[in-house]
Amino acid sequence: MPKTLADIKKSLDCHLGKRMQLKANGGRKKTIERSGVLRETYHAVFVVDLDQDENAFERVSYSYTDILTEAVEITIMDETENLVVVK
């Protein structure tokens, strides 16, 4: 796992447009699982377009700090969606 926020952003920049699954801490022992496509990375946050059949809203954004503190776990799928790369 990358050690700095800049390393996390660089690794996500390499995966723009790829499908991913997110596991986020929802508070009070809840885990939220979502899937979608990594659309954009900004200076402090990244944006994921969610699958519309599974979610009530179109997109979600998280900060790179969420990944660093392990509040969000990302699994990036390759083109065949058989092999997964865990970040």
Q: What percentage of the residues does DSSP assign to strands (E)?
A: over 45%
* Structure summary, number of beta strands: 6
Count of runs of 4 or more consecutive helical residues: 2
User: What's the CATH topology name?
Assistant: SH3 type barrels
Helix fraction bin: 10-25%
Structural class of the secondary structure composition?
alpha+beta
Mean pLDDT: 86
Computed over alpha carbons, the radius of gyration is 12 Å
For the termini, the CA-CA separation is 6 Å
Tell me the name of the CATH class.
Mainly Beta
Placed side by side, the strands forming the largest sheet appear as 4-3-2-1-5-6
Give the domain tally: 1
Taken from the alpha-carbon principal axes, the silhouette is: globular
Largest sheet: 6 strands, antiparallel
What's the CATH architecture name? Roll
Q: Which regions have little confidence, pLDDT < 50, spanning 5+ residues?
A: none
SSE pattern, N- to C-terminal: HEEEEHEE
Description:
It holds the Pfam family VEG. This protein has 87 residues and is of the alpha+beta class. It has one domain (5-86): SH3 type barrels, CATH 2.30.30.100. It contains two helices and six strands, in the order H-E-E-E-E-H-E-E. The chain has a six-stranded antiparallel beta sheet. A hairpin with a 6-residue loop joins strand 5 (72-77) and strand 6 (84-86). The model has no long low-confidence stretch (mean pLDDT 86).
